[in-house]
């Protein structure tokens, strides 16, 4: 904390922005500090922002936005910077508006099952603040220990338990948004979301920070399920594991979560900080959690054990204690970061496929892996067909980043080809802009950018994300991608 | 930190460097290769909690340290700020899914910074006084202890406080003065002529004990308690007189050469023993990491690794080798604070709690976020008082109201938490885990209870 420092910049924009946020502690503008903001959880593209500002309230956000808009300065909002598609990377040297100091839990209204938070409030903290009263916030992305709810809204984040409870958009009741011209609007006033007219909440949620900056969020909170239990199952063949997933759903069980990891992923999590002792020679591990009324749980668990046995499971058992259950989940939830233990860099993809295509898609991903010479680990929300192929590479080896991007893109192509799509919960960001063409035509993309123009007419807010640049031929795009990497 | 860059630049020697790290012993590339920038460390970091800024987060610091190696940044004042603002509490290492050794990287980067920009002026003089002229010299520390004792006993302390003479000191030093424990005779000096302090009853084994530099002056009664507890449980205790400061404060400050010097001296002093018992988490953690200092010297590296195996915290040692459960009722409500360098640094969490729970009548109340740093962090509370106070404030918010004592295993934390208690109008007594055990034994033996 450098209290006595003065702003050491001659840049009038820096000085004016510092004025808005109230001094040196709330603005970063020197290179050594800015380097820490040159990427988020997606590390392949890097670009320095012009400055980072830390507003304390909606009013300051509005003033910053107004200033940027009037002075033609590109800008974007950033939460904890854990996004995996590059949504918070300042591609155009943006002014980054960091929302992390707006981190209050404004109010909790358990009677009406809702809570109001500022965007910088950390996801898991909401559950922690209300768990003693028997309530929780359902969307649980793996990064929930540190990601912000504002970021969750921007990306429409999912998580392991979205199979039963839905993704972020299903839990948002109201938003306060600063529009790209600095105007403050409220959508879904007093937590009553179903206003007549178009579903604006749905439009803003998942817009990846391209339509406005969310400054206050009303979320739905849920009563803790009376009971929950988790089953762990090891399979010698991926096909058996996948088939078990389908069988469980067909049996009419709706698990709270149904997760799968393949052999390479298991190698990663076992080499990292939260190993649980999964055997090294199995092809797939399933984590299946059921929750709900205590009376029904045991029966569902028995059913699940039975299904797994029918599908040649090597070993299957329910957690013996809450501590064991927590260990299994910590192992799974830190899975992405754990890849650091077996590879210097990774690229995580986020495809969605029909569940029945799982064995087929996995074998095609294996093929991509052997063709590219890069290892690909698979961690996925098997229950809803949300696949996370993790392409392992070493950015220090020339050409390997490009190869990884190419392999990732091919994985998404496979997903799109079998009738799925290119993102389930991580967003498009920078990473999957071009892949939008796998699922949308030029016209469909143009229709969406037309919507953006209504909100963000000068495209100063988070430009260059979510959509491919229009009408360029594929070769040029490839070249641009290569340039962006180098 | 307003020394001009021109004053600072020294000519780098022509040794192996890495990118813009020009000196030997640069940050270890392998350590950051594990970081995939996932951000799971963010919420564990006290300085990120306070600032919300990436460069003050573990992932941000790793990113900056890596950027210097890649030649994107220079080792300069602006780079120094995030690297020295780190408390080195290691909470990020616990949180990290890939076990990235952030603490190790920070210490290596500090080593580079201190060589590129040696401290000059007042700050340099103060640092040199503490790190070179004071801590490594037990006799000087003892003299200082004697002066403190005189200050406390002679009525001077009262006079200074009464006449408001104390107000000429900076605020954070005033706070520290007010909680200074009563200085007693250092254990190392007391037992200088005793070769072996014999176990009471049958001897199970012989152990050596690190008395520590600050510990032995400020908290010699804890050293005394450690000896009592060890001898009561069948251990002969030896206090090698040639031992010195562990060097943690030096390594934290980037003075790795001095750290190496002290490490070598300690490795020599303790070479004839199978166990080196430590009652200060910070010292224990440092001594378990001596090998880090000798990465470029395979012979010493191997020797250091062997040495580190022998180093053990008192709570783990008692837990693993067994101890007599005290019989006297202590009848007190306590809470436990995890010292960073015990919990995050050495993975010791349950053992001290088990010991405390074995004392009859001890009612343990859970402290939320008990493994959050208190802001002491060696001498961080002297060098970075503003941040240390902010971290302390958030620590104190978690201390339960209705407890009489806060137990912990590190002298730095004890001073800091005592300051917290005083500053926020609380009334808890700060104790070391072995002290409480010792008092229970003494009560059982009908001896007047410890400090009471």
TrEMBL record, chain A:
Transmembrane region(s): none
Record-annotated FAD-binding PCMH-type domain positions: 45-224
GO MF terms, alphabetically ordered: FAD binding; oxidoreductase activity
Cofactors that this protein relies on: FAD
UniProt keyword list: FAD, Flavoprotein, Oxidoreductase
InterPro entries associated with the record: FAD-bd_oxidored_4_C, FAD-bd_PCMH, FAD-bd_PCMH-like_sf, FAD-bd_PCMH_sub2, FAD-linked_Oxase-like_C, FAD-linked_OxidoTrans_Type4, Oxid_FAD_bind_N, Vanillyl_alc_oxidase_C-sub2
Protein name, UniProt field: FAD linked oxidase
Organism of derivation: Cytobacillus firmus DS1
From TrEMBL, chain B:
Cofactor, free-text remark: Binds 2 [4Fe-4S] clusters.
Catalysis: reaction(s): (R)-lactate + A = pyruvate + AH2; glycolate + A = glyoxylate + AH2
Domain annotation 4Fe-4S ferredoxin-type: ranges: 26-55, 76-100
SUPFAM superfamilies: alpha-helical ferredoxin
EC number: 1.1.99.14
A Pfam family it matches: CCG
This protein's record includes keyword 4Fe-4S: yes
Domain of life: Bacteria
Obligatory cofactor(s): [4Fe-4S] cluster
InterPro entries: 4Fe4S_Fe-S-bd, 4Fe4S_Fe_S_CS, Cys_rich_dom, Glc_ox_4Fe-4S, Helical_ferredxn
Keyword terms, alphabetized: 4Fe-4S, Electron transport, Iron, Iron-sulfur, Metal-binding, Repeat, Transport
Gene Ontology molecular function: 4 iron, 4 sulfur cluster binding; glycolate dehydrogenase activity; metal ion binding
Role, per record: Component of a complex that catalyzes the oxidation of glycolate to glyoxylate.
Name recorded for this polypeptide: Glycolate oxidase iron-sulfur subunit
Protein source organism: Cytobacillus firmus DS1
Lineage: Bacteria, Bacillati, Bacillota, Bacilli, Bacillales
């Amino acid at each position: 904390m450098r209290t006595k420092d003065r702003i050491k910049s001659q840049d009038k924009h820096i000085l004016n922005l510092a004025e808005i946020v109230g001094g040196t502690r709330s603005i970063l503008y020197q290179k050594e500090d800015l380097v820490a903001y040159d990427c988020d959880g997606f590390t392949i593209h890097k670009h320095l922002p012009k400055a980072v500002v830390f507003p304390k309230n909606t009013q300051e956000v509005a003033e910053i936005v107004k200033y940027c808009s009037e002075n033609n300065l590109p800008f974007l909002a950033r939460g904890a910077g854990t996004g995996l598609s590059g949504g918070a990377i300042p591609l155009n040297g943006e002014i980054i508006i960091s929302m992390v100091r707006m981190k209050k839990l404004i109010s909790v209204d358990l009677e009406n099952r809702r809570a109001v938070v500022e965007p910088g409030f950390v996801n898991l903290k909401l559950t922690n603040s209300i768990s003693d009263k028997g309530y929780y916030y359902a969307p649980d992305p793996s990064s929930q220990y540190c990601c912000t709810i504002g970021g969750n809204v921007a990306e429409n984040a999912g998580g392991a338990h979205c199979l039963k409870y839905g993704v972020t958009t299903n839990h948002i009741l109201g938003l306060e948004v600063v529009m790209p011209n600095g105007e403050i609007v409220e959508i879904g006033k007093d937590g009553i979301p179903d206003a007549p007219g178009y579903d604006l909440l749905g439009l803003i949620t998942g817009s990846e920070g391209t339509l406005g900056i969310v400054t206050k969020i009303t979320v739905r909170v849920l009563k803790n399920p009376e009971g929950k239990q988790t089953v762990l199952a090891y399979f010698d063949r991926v096909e058996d594991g996948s088939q078990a997933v389908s069988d469980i759903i067909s049996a009419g069980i709706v698990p709270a979560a149904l997760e799968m990891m393949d052999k390479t992923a298991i190698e990663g999590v076992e080499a990292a900080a939260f190993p649980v002792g999964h055997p090294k020679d199995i092809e797939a591990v399933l984590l299946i959690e059921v929750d709900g009324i205590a009376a029904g749980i045991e029966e569902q668990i028995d059913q699940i054990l039975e299904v797994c046995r029918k599908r040649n499971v090597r070993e299957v058992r329910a957690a013996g204690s809450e501590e064991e259950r927590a260990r299994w989940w910590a192992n799974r939830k830190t899975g992405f970061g754990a890849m650091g233990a077996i590879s210097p860099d990774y690229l995580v993809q986020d495809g969605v496929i029909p569940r029945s295509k799982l064995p087929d898609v996995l074998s095609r991903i294996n093929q991509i892996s052997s063709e590219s010479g890069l290892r690909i680990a698979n961690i996925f929300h098997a229950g809803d067909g949300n696949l996370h192929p993790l392409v392992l590479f070493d950015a220090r080896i020339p050409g390997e980043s490009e190869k990884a991007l190419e392999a990732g893109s091919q994985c998404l192509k496979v997903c799109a080809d079998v009738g799925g799509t290119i993102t389930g919960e991580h967003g498009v960001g920078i990473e999957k802009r071009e892949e939008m063409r796998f699922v949308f035509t030029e016209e469909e993309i143009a229709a969406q950018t037309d919507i953006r123009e209504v909100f963000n007419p000068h495209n100063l807010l988070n430009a260059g994300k979510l959509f491919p640049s229009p009408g360029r031929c594929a070769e040029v795009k490839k070249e641009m991608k290569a340039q962006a990497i180098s | 930190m307003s020394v001009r860059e021109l004053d600072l630049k020294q000519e780098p020697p022509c040794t192996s460097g890495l990118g813009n790290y020009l000196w030997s012993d640069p940050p270890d590339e392998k350590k950051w290769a594990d970081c995939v920038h996932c951000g799971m460390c963010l919420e564990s970091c006290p300085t990120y909690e306070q600032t919300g800024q990436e460069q003050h987060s573990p992932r941000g610091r790793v990113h900056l340290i890596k950027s210097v190696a890649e030649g994107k940044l220079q080792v300069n004042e602006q780079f120094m700020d995030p690297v020295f603002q780190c408390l080195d509490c290691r909470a990020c290492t616990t949180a990290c899914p890939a076990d990235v050794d952030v603490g190790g990287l920070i210490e290596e980067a500090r080593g580079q910074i201190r060589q590129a920009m040696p401290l000059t002026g007042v700050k340099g003089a103060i640092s040199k006084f503490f790190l070179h002229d004071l801590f490594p010299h037990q006799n000087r520390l003892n003299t200082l202890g004697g002066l403190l004792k005189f200050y406390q006993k002679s009525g001077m302390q009262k006079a200074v406080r009464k006449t408001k003479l104390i107000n000429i000191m900076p605020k954070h030093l005033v706070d520290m003065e007010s909680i200074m424990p009563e200085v007693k005779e250092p254990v190392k000096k007391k037992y200088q002529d005793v070769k072996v302090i014999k176990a009471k009853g049958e001897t199970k084994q012989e152990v050596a004990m690190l008395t520590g530099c600050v510990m032995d002056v400020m908290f010699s009664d804890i050293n005394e308690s450690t000896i009592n507890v060890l001898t009561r449980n069948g251990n002969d205790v030896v206090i090698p007189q040639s031992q010195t400061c562990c060097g943690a404060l030096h390594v934290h400050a980037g003075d790795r050469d001095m750290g190496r010097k002290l490490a070598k001296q300690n490795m020599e002093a303790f070479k004839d023993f199978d166990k080196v018992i430590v009652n200060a988490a910070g010292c224990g953690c440092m001594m378990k990491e001596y090998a880090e200092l000798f990465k470029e010297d395979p012979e010493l590296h191997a020797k250091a690794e062997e040495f580190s195996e022998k180093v053990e915290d008192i709570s783990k040692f008692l837990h693993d080798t067994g101890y007599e459960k005290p019989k006297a009722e202590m009848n007190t409500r306590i809470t436990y604070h995890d010292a960073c360098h015990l919990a995050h640094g050495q993975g010791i969490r349950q053992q001290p709690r088990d010991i405390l729970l074995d004392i009859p009548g001890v009612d343990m109340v859970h402290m939320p976020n008990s493994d959050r740093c208190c802001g002491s962090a060696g001498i961080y509370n002297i060098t970075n008082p503003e941040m240390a106070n902010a971290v302390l404030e958030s620590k104190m918010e978690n201390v339960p109201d209705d407890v009489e004592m806060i137990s912990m295993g590190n002298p730095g934390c004890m001073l800091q938490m005592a300051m917290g208690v005083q500053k926020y109008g609380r009334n808890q007594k700060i104790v070391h885990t072995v002290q409480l055990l010792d008092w229970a034994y003494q009560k059982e033996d009908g001896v007047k209870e410890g400090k009471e």
